[in-house]
Amino acid sequence: MKKKSAGSIAVMLLVMIYLLIPLVISIIYSLFKKWTGILPEGFSIGNYASLFSDPNFLASVGRSVGMCIVPILLTIVIVLLALFVTTIYFPKLEKYVQIICMIPYTIQGVILSVSILSLYVGNKSVLSNRMVMLMGAYCIVILPYIYQGIRNGMRAVNMVTLIEAAEMLGASKIYAFFRVVVPNIISAIIVSSLLAVGIIFGDYVLIRNLAGTSAPNMQIFLYQTMKSDSTKASAVFVIIMFVTFVITAVVLFLKSREGKNRVQKK
User: Are 60 and 218 in contact (CB under 8 A)?
Assistant: First the structure.
């Protein structure tokens, strides 16, 4: 058993090293002014200093985070309500809901953005707003990941049985769903949300086509920086990864703290 565990740890370490190589190289590259030979020249943290003093970059970070929060929360609420209705009241319709939620897997970003523009640009309602179109497009893109994670979580806890047990104690279906089922599938919701964060943070096509340069996120800023300074672009990439890690760490910390509170209450 010890040999197997040591082998597993060694394999995991090799995989981690392999995955972290691009990030480590980007960090090293961003800390030098130029790298035209075998060794870099001019060690400096000027790239990071200039980025954190640039209001445009800070605004792009804020936009990226905001563009993650709104579509993810909206999609989670819609999927939760849809699965509640179909599972409890119309179980025969669940397969059709699943098909609809899986369709975005096959839609390319360019096709989606062009279709949205052609449909809503001439509209005089709020739907013609570029940011509204972008948020709606992100909801569509992340829908399969949110749906699949929540659906698997509901099946794991046997949602119907939990709701029936809560009804026997006098609770309504909707109350039992949000007070009993949702807290028990919070892990599935968190995992799905983290997948969605990675997808939105890595997007360039949708925001470029729908919002243009009027509301640039970190990916747009990275693309514009690559045209002028490659070392500074590496610093932008490192910060993007750092922000992603921070969001993931905060979410996992809140999840672990909630789990500890539950154990203490029991």
Answer: yes
